[in-house]
């Protein structure tokens, strides 16, 4: 496939790996923000090909993992309402709530549908005027334009039986939360390429400056990731802390203006609780006043009791890069994909699931 | 997060207003109706980056090639930096 | 959605005095009799079935293989096939994986009230075609009808009996280090063909199911290579990864595969990329994995590639003593990773 396969070229990957080995003289800890990047690093076996001096820590860039348990409970509640169809992306269905997950609710007879796109949920609403359709709108900034567009389209088409349960999270506040933590060990970041395709690069300059940390906006294919790692290490070796763009085929400094406008038309910045990390102010999106009729929380008058996270799950430390999944006492025993204690074991992007699925317990292969 | 892949626009199929602009996009031969309103300049034969049914960027073909000459360019830059002026 | 029914048999639908199947058709009375006579027995005629006994009786010499499977696929019609031919090919293939030439099948229907006669007839025609192509006879069966809402249009069970070829010696205990792993064609085709129709995920494609009977191809290979074929398995639900994991667990050997070598159709690959699915876990139908002795691997591959069923066959890896009990994949760029069991159903992702 064009613009995909060529970034998996083994020779170019080997050359980049060689160069990374060549330039790395000291120990560096890098964090890739995005769950999709974690997935790609582990799936392609890149981690073990990097020099031992480089430690990759997997960041909280997995909206599935950071969606708080209370929000899952809200989705479960809505799915169980009569005449309600809850539509969702596939990855959300197995995330554990306080008592149930959406897959269990579906098995018990609720109308829960997996969709590829939120725009399809609006179609379903149009075709089922006697039902209420709710779309479980999760994601980082990348997914926000599509979720916002679904609301705009519904509004224009006069579809009133549609609403979204918004659980959007934003990258820069998460980076700040990580960098401002006293125990932070991260030397450099691979920023999320697709988030930046939407939002551009501007938000990252103050962060790089404030914390003197290089930030390289990086793609997802093996060649992208290796180049991003190389660019970050090169900066670190020289003592630089700039914002650089590896993913230039899609990311422009100003981002995608239409997409940003679409987000701002429908969403307002709000506080958000990140599963495993806790509340971070101004770190999420909620449906704004103008489109309040499409806000499922208001429409259904949601007022569920706050839920407690499983105390045994150390997802916060993992997502902040303070611990690796294998350092969790329950990893692979009490906590496995088939019975996860917390979110990073559920989504295949979650650090714990990625490690569980893709690597040996001691990360060594013959 | 953000699984997004490039696809080729085969045709623009619908254009009620800017919110409803759709195109038939091919991913290795399979096709799907994708919303193109975030990429208003996109036209047939362009490659677009698609996430959850919405195109979010048009591939910059020139920039796309640069990854492949990165090491070579880097090598040339180093030579310039190291060579006596 | 178009469903391609290969109407190579001249099988016009007979005139029924009912358009849909009702509870009455499963009650054992006159309606049942009419359904069976004008429908099932009419099209599936053979000497054994025509006796219409409670069970079929026949002589059989040799080591017998016996297999059963139930088919609940939804939708029941999909690109390139339907639940009917799936039900025949699936059990014929399971017997082939045991090294047996399938001979006789049983056929049981559980029909949801309201299934149209037209749809039922199409399924029957496909069953007949698949039976003829694979050379089996359906010799006994059963038909039940359940209330609306208690089924999903139609469920089918087939059980099959075959005679194991005298040259066959297929057992996981025979697998050894250095044996070569071969797949007979492109992976993930069937699962993606079904996915293309799934509401909410659908896309346009001309991918069709790879469902077909593999028995003739396999018996020919067994005749030629005998006990140099250590093991055969068709990776249906759970895909290639699941079969490899089962083998690794049973044999306590390591199974090493190379991503670059695994054949996959370009459109199937595109669909997997779009939906975020790993093709290693997607279902296949008319595909098998063979584990063969290293010395004959090249010849086996050539023979397989010379068949219609195996034209895209490839060597994808080998069995090792290192990493016992594990399946290791070498990625396109040369890194290694574990291929684990699938946990639950693979779901499309945004992440």
| Level-2 CATH architecture of the largest domain in chain C | Alpha-Beta Complex
CATH-defined fold name of the largest domain in chain C: Phosphoribosyl-aminoimidazole Synthetase, Chain A, domain 2
Q: Report the CATH C-level class of the largest domain in chain C.
A: Alpha Beta
Major beta sheet summary of chain A? 6 strands, mixed
**Domains counted in the coordinates of chain A: how many?**
3
What topology emerges from the helices and strands here?
The complex is a heterotrimer of chains A (366), B (85) and C (351).
Chain A lengths: L9 H14 L4 E7 H9 L10 E8 L1 H4 L2 H11 L4 E5 L13 H6 L3 E4 L3 H10 L4 E8 L4 H14 L4 E8 L1 H9 L8 E5 H7 L4 H8 L3 E4 L3 H17 L4 E3 L11 H10 E8 L3 E10 L8 H4 L15 H5 L31 H8 L8
Parallel strand pairs in A: 1-2, 1-7, 3-4, 3-5, 5-6, 7-8, 8-9
Antiparallel strand pairs in A: 6-11, 10-11
Helix pairs in contact in A: 1-11, 2-15, 6-7, 7-12
Chain B lengths: L4 E10 L7 E6 L2 E6 L11 E5 L2 E5 L2 H22 L3
Antiparallel strand pairs in B: 1-2, 1-4, 2-3, 4-5
Chain C lengths: L29 H14 L3 H4 L13 E8 L5 E2 L2 E2 H15 L2 E13 L4 H18 L2 E10 L7 E11 L15 E4 L5 H7 L19 H11 L3 E5 L5 H13 L2 E5 L7 H10 L13 E4 L4 H9 L8 E7 L6 E4 L5 E3 L13
Parallel strand pairs in C: 4-5, 9-12
Antiparallel strand pairs in C: 1-6, 2-3, 4-6, 7-10, 7-11, 8-10, 9-11, 12-13
Helix pairs in contact in C: 3-4, 3-6
Task: Kindly describe this structure.
The complex is a heterotrimer of chains A (366), B (85) and C (351). With 366 residues, chain A is α/β, with parallel strands linked by helices. Chain A has 15 helices and eleven strands. Chain A folds into three domains: 129 residues, Rossmann fold (3-Layer(aba) Sandwich); 151 residues, Rossmann fold, CATH 3.40.50; 44 residues, no CATH class. In chain A, strands 4-3-5-6-11-10 form a six-stranded mixed beta sheet, with helices on both faces. A five-stranded parallel beta sheet of chain A has the order 2-1-7-8-9. In chain A, helix 2 runs parallel beside helix 15 and helix 7 packs across helix 12. Chain B is elongated. By secondary structure, chain B is α+β, with helices and mostly antiparallel strands. A five-stranded antiparallel beta sheet of chain B has the order 3-2-1-4-5, with no helix packed on it. Chain C folds into two domains: 142 residues, 2-Layer Sandwich (60s Ribosomal Protein L30, Chain: A), CATH 3.30.1330; 167 residues, PurM-like C-terminal domain (Phosphoribosyl-aminoimidazole Synthetase, Chain A, domain 2), CATH 3.90.650. Helices cover 29% and strands 22% of the residues of chain C. Chain C contains nine helices and 13 strands. Chains in contact: A-B, A-C, B-C. The interface between A and B is large, with 52 and 36 residues.
